[in-house]
Structure formats: C-alpha cells, structure tokens
Amino acid sequence: MWTYFLIFLSVTVLAVIFVRRWVLFCRKGLLKDSLAKTSSDELTEDSVCEDEDSLQKISRGDRGKVDALYGRGVSMLGAGKDDEAIKCFVQALSVDAVHTETMHKLAMLYLQKQMYGAAAVLFKQLGELTNDPVHYSHLGLVLYQQSDFEASKEAYQQAVKLDANRPQRFVSLAQVYRALGQINHAMMALNKALEVDKENTEFLFLLATLQAESGDFGEAKAVIEKILEFDPSNKEAEDFLKELKSKPTEGQG
Fold first, then answer.
1. 75 close to 86: Cβ distance less than 8 angstroms
2. In this structure, what DSSP letter does residue 197 have?
3. Per-residue pLDDT tens digits for 101-146
4. Exposure pattern of 127-155 as b/e (b: 16+ CB <10 Å)?
5. Of 14 and 235, which is predicted with more confidence?
6. Amino acid 29: pLDDT
7. CB–CB of 134/104 below 8 Å?
8. How far is Cα 239 from Cα 57, in angstroms, rounded to an integer?
9. DSSP output for 108-171
10. Please, are residues 19 and 11 in contact by the beta-carbon 8 Å criterion?
11. In this predicted structure, what is the pLDDT of residue 48?
12. d(CA 243, CA 237)
C-alpha cells in the first residue's frame, strides 16, 4: 500500500516540478519583454535589479524550510528510514522544485527502490540543470532498466561526451549497443574503455564475448589468451577458450 502511495507522491512532485519551472520560465520571459519595451531613458540599473530580485525572493524566503527538510531527509536516510526520507525530499521539492541536492537524493532513492520512471524524470532534469555526467550516466541506467535502449544510448553518449575518463561509462554504453544489436558499435565503445584501463579482465572478457557473437572467433580467442596471461587461474576464461577452440576461425570450414 505504501509503495503505491510513494508512486502517487512521485507523480505529484514531478508534476509540481514541471509546473513551477514552466511558471518561472514564463515569468522570466515576461520580465525580458517588459525590459525590452522600456525606453533606454527610463531603464535604470536599480529598476533592473529590483525586478530580477523579485523573482529570486520566492526561493530565498523558503530556503530555510527547504534546507531543514533536506537535512531531515538525509538524517532519515542515515537511520535507514527510506520512506520517511522520501516524504521529506518530496516536501522540500514542493517548495523549491529545482533544489538539486534534494533532487539527486530522491532520484537515487527511486533508483534503489526500482521506481525507474520517477528516477528517470529527475535524472533527466538534473542533467539539464547541472550538465553533470554522473546524472546522465544514472539516467542511462534507469532508461536501460526500462528497456528504453535508444534513450539510454543517448544518455550514456552525453555522459562520455562530458567525461571520457570513466571507462565504466563506455562499458555501459557498450551494453546498450549490444541490447540494440549494434555489436560493432559495442566493440568500439569497449575499446574506448580499454584505452583507459588496458588490463581490466572483465572488459576484455566482454570484448571477447562480443567478438564471438559477431562470429570473429579468432579475435575472441586472442583476447581470452590475453586475459589468461594476466590471470592464469581464471576458470571462466579457460572454459571460454575451450569453447572458442571448437569454433572455426577465418579461413577454416
């Protein structure tokens, strides 16, 4: 019963986020139009500051309340009271719909509870607000869990575009390409990961698996042999090598 209530709260708070952001956007647009219509003789620095300041007073006036709710939510998380934490974060976002720390905490909670739809909306907004590759990476994950592979691919592509130094992101992108049946693109992404972490046996094993799936058993065999050079006792690699040796290589069969 509580799970359904959480879902209801999630939909409600996300709707609030959209509405508040839309209203803020419209108000800013109206302010720009108003300033544009004001003659240069009438426009003073004080009047511009006063108008811009009036748009910011909403968040300033409620900042203490948001901070208190966020702090309580974090405390509830530390105490293992996830449901109470969610309620605090939802209340905080009803006051400040773009409080990024709260959005991130709530999105991570939704991810942990496998509420992927709600998590995806929050991570997408976080990515747009912060341009942080972490948020795009998490967005890619929740979209993958929803089997929305095309959208997941775009999210991971954005993550690696912003930060190409995390090899695991390329591996995740490779898995998305694999799910889409784009094996060559998957291998290209894996090779990017291996440029950063050359001796990662897990990455190499996945590369060999993809090569085998593409029918290139010779290359797959060479990669598995490389893994066994790094890790001679790797039983999974040994078994895979035996399987690959029974497959025809180029020029055979």
1. no
2. S
3. 999 999 999 999 999 999 999 999 999 999 999 999 999 999 999 9
4. beeeebbbbbbbbbbbbbeeebbebbbbb
5. 235
6. 45
7. no
8. 66
9. HHHHHTT-HHHHHHHHHHHHHHH--HHHHHHHHHHHHHTT-HHHHHHHHHHHHHH----HHHHH
10. no
11. 37
12. 10
Contacts of 183 (CB under 8 A, 6+ apart): 177, 210, 213, 214
Cα(235)–Cα(90) distance, integer angstroms: 48
Name which of 198, 154, 195, 194 is nearest 176 in CA terms.
154
Residue keyed to tokens 């905080």: 92
**pLDDT tens digits for range 28-65:** 443 344 334 433 443 344 433 443 443 345 456 688 99
Q: What sign does the CA torsion over 116, 6, 73, 18 have?
A: positive
Q: What is the pTM of this model?
A: 0.77
Cα 151 to the chain's mean position, in Å?
11
Q: Return the C-alpha torsion angle 203, 207, 213, 216, nearest 10.
A: -160
DSSP secondary structure string for all residues of 48-109: HHHHHHHHHHHHHHHHHHHHHHHHHHHHHHHTT-HHHHHHHHHHHHHH-TT-HHHHHHHHHH
DSSP string, 12-48: HHHHHHHHHHHHHHHHHHHHHHHHHHS-TTT--HHHH
pLDDT at 248: 74
Q: Which two tokens stand for residue 245?
A: 């040796």
CA 141 to centroid of chain Cα atoms: 6
